[in-house]
Design a protein that fits this description.
Structural class: alpha/beta
Number of helices: 11
Distance between the termini: 46 Å
Order of helices and strands: EHEHEHEHHEHEEHEEEHEEHEHH
Radius of gyration: 20 Å
Strand order of the largest sheet: 3-2-1-4-5-6-11
Largest sheet: 7 strands, parallel
Number of strands: 13
Helix content: 40-55%
Strand content: 15-25%
Shape: globular
């Protein structure tokens, strides 16, 4: 069993990584500054792993504190780095916070990995790095111009990872997430992702907002696929694997869904569960920085990680939304 340092452990993805690590018997050291993470996410993850005897130590700290990162990751075997300002609109509103957290914080994590002899660091990159590329499906090596400060920070992470791997003989893998969704994803705030935001709208009998004409596509990837990719990345081996390397790999389902089709699928599930039809969507102008069409070529992740998505976007929606939209069971009489 390993000891894993998880940054952003109170976030949506970080808390799912925590639950899986503990259930698998790995000790975990986790940090979060609660800018976007929530204590209830940690509680939920810990509850999922209630039978585990693995140890979990949590610290309320910020990845912008280099000394804290070095101290907390000491004696760990691996790092799963999830802490970030993970929003295109937020990065446009506050590019300096995005830079300080996503890039300076990332360098602090890499320095902690270097000083503490971490075996392998796996970090969250993003499909945003494909930017203006018109190459569909999105394929590693076909990146375009960056369309937002957020995208720039994620692309810069990948470039720094390459140089640190070569200069300091490290193993670093970046996972380019494509529109992850699932339980514990925050529906609140102006920067919320589309699926939890639409769930909240439907449950409150409000119209879902579609930015643009609804033709924009995304590769929606259920959280269980992403968790699996992270743990495959921790110990994956392949023929002629060098002693030190940096990779950036697409993680998605290899399929695309338009916003209009996504709304239709969610509306069908909502109506089936609740017996009510949601309001028609409201269309607003497209937002700056958003990519028009996106879905992942995952051949490289298959080759290096033996990754295969186990849950399709449609099946993930059914799993997630059926649980959310289902009416509560009537309490039994006493």
């Amino acid at each position: 069993m390993a000891k894993i340092f998880i940054t952003g452990v109170a976030g949506f993805i970080g808390s799912h990584l925590l639950a899986h690590a503990l259930k698998s018997g790995h000790d975990v050291v986790g940090i979060d500054n609660f800018l976007t993470g929530k204590r209830e996410n940690i509680d939920a993850a810990y509850s999922e792993a209630h039978d585990s005897t693995a140890r979990f130590d949590f610290f309320c700290e910020d990845i912008r504190d280099r000394q804290a990162m070095i101290a907390r990751s000491k004696d760990c075997d691996f790092i799963l780095h999830e802490a970030a300002i993970g929003s295109v609109p937020w990065s446009i509103d506050d590019p300096f916070l995005s830079h300080e957290t996503n890039l300076t914080g990332f360098l602090n994590v890499l320095e902690a990995a270097r000083q503490n002899g971490i075996k392998r660091t796996v970090y969250a990159s993003s499909s945003a790095v494909f930017g203006s590329s018109t190459h569909i499906p999105s394929t590693e090596g076909c990146e375009g111009e960056m369309l937002s400060p957020y995208a720039s920070t994620k692309r810069a992470q990948e470039i720094y990872a390459q140089s640190w791997a070569r200069a300091y003989h490290m193993q670093i893998i970046g996972l380019r997430y494509f529109n992850v969704f699932g339980p514990r994803q925050d529906p609140n705030g102006p920067y919320a992702a589309v699926i939890p935001r639409w769930i909240d709208a439907m449950m409150n009998d409000a119209p879902c907002t579609i930015f643009g004409d609804g033709s924009a596509t995304r590769d929606y990837c259920y959280i269980d696929n992403v968790v699996r990719a992270n743990f495959l990345a921790l110990d994956a081996t392949w023929p002629n694997q060098p002693a030190d390397f940096a990779l950036a790999l697409n993680i998605g389902c290899g399929a695309q869904t338009s916003l209009v089709d996504l709304h239709r699928d969610m509306a069908e599930i909502y109506e089936k569960c609740s017996g009510k039809s949601p309001k028609p969507p409201e269309f607003l102008p497209a937002r700056p920085g958003d990519i028009a069409f996106s879905f992942a070529n995952i051949d490289r992740a298959r080759a290096y990680l033996h990754f295969e998505p186990k849950i399709s976007a449609k099946n993930g929606l059914e799993l997630f939304l059926t649980d959310v939209f289902a009416p509560p069971s009537p309490s039994s009489a006493t």
